[in-house]
Design a protein that fits this description.
Elements lengths: L1 H49 L7 H19 L5 H12 L10 H4 L2 H12 L12 H74 L9 H7 L1 H5 L2 H33 L1 H17 L3 H5 L4 H18 L9 H12 L12 H5 L2 H38 L4
Helix pairs in contact: 1-5, 1-6, 1-10, 2-3, 6-15, 9-10, 12-13, 12-15
Pfam families: Ion_trans_2 (PF07885)
Keywords: Ion channel, Ion transport, Membrane, Potassium, Transmembrane, Transmembrane helix, Transport
Membrane topology: Multi-pass membrane protein
Length: 394
Amino acid sequence: EFRMALTSQPLQGKKRCKKIFWAVFPHACFILSLVIYAFLGALMFSHIEGNRKVNSSEGYRNFLQGLWSISKNLSDNMTENEEVFKEKIYNLLGTFEHEWFVDPKKIWNFFGSLFFCCTVFTTVGYGNTYPITRTGKYLCMLYALFGIPLMFLVLTDMGDILATVLSKCYNEFRKLQSKILASKLCSVFMCKKESETQSRRSLLMKSKVILNEPLSIVEVLKSQSALKRKPVQYRNAEIFEMLIAREKEYTKLSRTKSIERWSSCPELERGKTMTSVIENFDKIGKELEKLDVPILLMVLVIFVYISCAAAILPKWETNLDFQEAFYFCFITLTTIGFGDTQLQHPRFFLFLSLYIIIGMEIVFIAFKLGQDRLIVFYKKVISFCGEKKITPKK
């Protein structure tokens, strides 16, 4: 028995490790596939857009010609009206294109292309980096067509994890709150009970009533004279105890045999694990639907989450203060992405990609809770209006 216990312990440890691995496998598979998809997109766009030829287009030539003519007129005729000069400069700058004076190899390097891919499948789309070639535009549409569903799948999967964490934290907080209230109420009731018991004891002492404790079952059986004459019943009790002990031994042996069967036939275990993994894939999004926490709590979580990033971001983006960084993080996590705030070091922001995904998931959960609350509100309004119309006028 000691040897079987020793051999069963490492088998149980291996089984636990396998269960943990197959439970984590779907989540790791989604995240890893998104990372590989982003790296492949970065390599593709850096090769296509980074190696494009900067052609001197007709608009670019007209821009330079106009700039040269304005500067020549300014140098030849110093008495020209200032308002006319400003109007010419304004009209000329209206035809300016950003890509005329940009080196594509500097923008479309690996990290710049990776940043662009992240803005594509997260549907942020700042607008400061965009493909110019026709091949790049077509591939961008194809890349977004497959990348956006993959991103939403990762968000849904991580949403289940965050939903379970939030629901457990909220339930534990409610339990702690109820325990504190219960302890306060119990303290009040205990004081009352102690006063009542003291009054009862004083009354019993006055009446001099002696209370005996109830006898146990064995003492009751021993006190019976009929049972003393019949020791066969005691023998039956001993036989019954022996049968119970033997049944426990058989259950232990059956457990060890089942372990040996799983170890001798790994195909059965593999089939069981594969079915559990498939069930884990089918359960994606279930926990998110069950989440029921106050919407104000989610708003507070979003505020704290964005504030932490807004305090860190100005460390390397010196052109941003706390308020602008807070605005930039909010616009990013809500996938609005105006592009009015540009980062000087976008590759540093890539290190916060996990922060962006988790933040988008928190905002998505908040929007989901707000949507559910709005649906409940609309149902109440419609039922209230329907009841008013149904009720007859007196």
